[in-house]
Amino acid sequence: MDLEFGNCWGNSRKDSWKTILLLAYQSLGVVYGDLSISPLYVYTSTFAEDIEHSETNEEIFGTLSFVFWTLTLVPLFKYVFVVLRADDNGEGGTFALYSLICRHAKVSLLPNRQHSDEALSTYKMEEPPAKMNSMVKLLLEKYKALHTALLIVVLLGTCMVIGDGLLTPAISVFSAVSGLEVSMSRKHHQYAVIPITCFILVCLFALQHYGTHRVGFLFAPIVLAWLLCISTLGLYNIFKWNPHIYKALSPYYMFKFLKKTRISGWMSLGGILLCITGSEAMFADLGHFSYMAIQIAFTFLVYPALILAYMGQAAYLSNHHHLQISFYASVPESVRWPVIILAILASVVGSQAIISGTFSIINQSQSLGCFPRVKVVHTSDKIHGLAVMTVMLVTTCLTSLVIILCWHKPPIIALCFLLFFGSIELLYFSASLMKFCEGAWFPILLALFLMIIMFLWHYASIKKYEYDLHNKVSLDWLLALGPSLGIARVPGIGLVFTDLTTGIPANFSRFVTNLPAYHRILVFVCVKSVPVPHVPVAERYLVGRVGPPEHRSYRCIVRYGYRDVHQDIDSFESELVEKLSDFIQYDWYRARASNVSNNEDDGSCSNESSGHRLTVIGTMGLCEDSVQLASVSDVVEIDAPSGTRERRVRFAIDGDNEHDNDSESVTVHHQMQQELEDLYAGQESGIAFILGHSHVRAKPGSSVFKKLALNYGYNFLRRNCRGPDVALKVPPVSLLEVGMVYVL
C-alpha cells in the first residue's frame, strides 16, 4: 500500500506540473493578448508630439529605460509577486479585492447579509493574531461614509475597465493594420488602413453574439507565435544595429531623459505607460487559470519577449534618426508581410480577451446589485492610457487594505506598498491628465456616465430593500388567513420572490388583498448574492419553515457567488422541489429523533423550526442500498448578531428503522409522507411565479437631485432593462406580477 501510495503521489505530482504548464500555455491567449501587442504602439505614441528623436540618442535610450523599469516594477514585482497572492478563493480582479475586504471588515453595503453566509466553505477568513485589532479596520467600520467611498473606488475601477474594453480593440487593431503604411505608398494607404480596421472591428463585435469558443483554441498559438516573432526580431536588431543597447537599461538614462526633455518628456510618459496595458488581466483572469501558471507564463516567456522586442526597436532607432518611428520600420522587408498578418491576428486576440473580461465584469456588477439587468451571452493612445492607470491605482489602494485587513500585516508595510507603487502610477496618471483636452476627457466622461448608472441602481436597490424591510408583514398575519376571511387555497406551488430573508414581503400581502387566494404550497424565495466568487451547489439552498407544518409554507434562500452563473428556470424548479423534499424528510426525522429521546410531541419540534431555524440542504450521494443521504447544516437564529450555532448531520431515510413500531414514530412517518405527497401534488398541478412589478417615486419633500435620480433616472433604467421575469426566464403562463409603488 505504501508503494502504491508513493507511485500515485509521484504520478499526481507529474500530472500536476503538466497541468500547470498546460494552463500557462493556455493563458497566453486569454491573459497576455493585450500586453503582448503593446510594442506595436509604445514608441510611436511616445514620440508622437512632445519629443523628437535626436542624434544623441538620449531620448530613445531614456524611453527604453523607462519601459524596462516600468515593465519590471509594475507587472513583474507588483502583480506577479504581490497582487496575485490577494486572490479570493482563486479568483482575482477588483471585485475579488472588494469581496475580501468586506468579509474581513463590516464595510459591505449588500443589504441581506446573514450570519449563516459565514458558514460557507468558500467564506474563508484568516483570523488576526491575538490582541491585534487594526485601527484601520475600526475606522472603516465606524463611518458609513467610508463604506460608500470604498464602493465608489471599486466602481471607478470597474467603470475604467469597461471603458478600456471599449477603447482597446480600436487602438490595437488600428496599430496592427498601420503596418500597411510602410509597405504601401502614402497615396494608397490612407484609403486602406481605416476601412480595413473598421471591417475587422465590425467582424470582431459581430462574433460576440455567437461566441468565440469555436476559434478560441487558436488564441494561445497565435500569441505564442507573436511573442516568439517579436523576441526573434529584437535579437536580430540588437546584434545587427547596436549590441551595447543593454547599457540603456540603467536608470541613469531616465534622469538624462527628463533633464533634457523636461516638461515635454514628462508629458510623453503617457505614451510609455502603454507598455503595461493588459497587466491588470493577469489578476482579473486569475480564476480561469492559477497563480503558478500565470507566474510561469509571464516570468519565463512574456516578460523576456517584451524586453527583447523593446530593446531591438531601440537598437534599430539608435542608428536610424530620420525615419518615421514605427514598429514595422525595424522589421526586415523580407518578412514584413507575414509579421503584419501575425500582428493583426494577435491584436484581434488581445481585443477579444478584454471584451470577454468586460462582459464578465458586467455580470459581477449585476450580482452585487450595481448594474441594471442586461443579457450577457457567455460565449487607446493617450485616451487608453488614462483608463489603464486609473484601474492600476484602484488595485494598489485596495491591495493596501487587503495587506492590513486580510493578511494582518503591520500598516507600515501596506503604507510602503501604497507609496512605492502609488507614486509610480501617479506619475503616469498625471502625465495622462495633461492630455485631457486632446482626448483624455473621453474615458473620464465614459467612466462618470457608467458610475452614475451603477451608483444610481445600487442606491435605489438599497432603498427598495429598506422599504420592504420596514413594510414586511408579520407571521401571525399569514397564519390568520383562512376560509373565515374568505381566503382560499388553490392547488399548486406558489413561489413568491423577494429580497427579504425574514418576514412576509409586502407584495404578497398586496397580492392576497386583491386576489383572496393563494397556493396550497407556498414558498418565499430569496435569490441573493454573497461576497464570495462561488457558492458550492451543495451549500446553495437554505431552507426553513414559515409557520407550522400543516400550513405548508416554506422559505428558501438561494445563494450565488459573484462569479456564479444562475441556473435556468426548468432545473431551478425541479431542484427547488428536490431540496424542499429533503428538508421535509430531515425536519420530520429530527422530530422523530427528538420524540424518541425526549418524549416531545411532533408539533413542538416542528414549530421550533418554524421560527428562526434554516437548514442548508445538499445531497452528498447514494449509499450501497440506494438510500439517499443528505448533508445538512443546521443554523439557528440566522439573523442574530452573535451566538449562531451550527450543527452538521447526515441522515438516511430507511423503512426498516428500529423505531418504526413506536406509535409516535409511525404517526410522524405518516405526517411526513402526507406532506411529501402534498408537495409532489402541488408540483403536478403547476408552479406559479409571483414577482413584484415595482415603480419608484421619491417621497414628498425630497431634494431635487433625489427626485431626478429616482423618478426619472432609475425608472428609465428599469423600463429599458430586463425585468426580473425575463432574467429568470419565467414562462409567461406561469407569471403573476404584483404592482408595487415604492415611495422612498
Automatic annotation (TrEMBL):
Membrane topology: Multi-pass membrane protein
Entry superkingdom: Eukaryota
Domain K+ potassium transporter integral membrane: 23-385
GO molecular function: potassium ion transmembrane transporter activity
Keywords of this entry: Ion transport, Membrane, Potassium, Potassium transport, Transmembrane, Transmembrane helix, Transport
Cellular compartments annotated: Cell membrane
GO cellular component: plasma membrane
Segments forming domain K+ potassium transporter C-terminal: 491-743
Keyword Transmembrane: yes
TM region(s), chain numbering: 20-40, 60-81, 145-171, 191-210, 217-239, 263-284, 296-317, 337-362, 383-405, 411-429, 441-460
Main location: membrane
N-terminal signal peptide: none
Entry annotated with the keyword Ion transport: yes
PANTHER family according to UniProt: OSMOTIC STRESS POTASSIUM TRANSPORTER, POTASSIUM TRANSPORTER 2
Annotated family: Belongs to the HAK/KUP transporter (TC 2.A.72.3) family.
Protein name: Potassium transporter
Organism phylogeny: Eukaryota, Viridiplantae, Streptophyta, Embryophyta, Tracheophyta
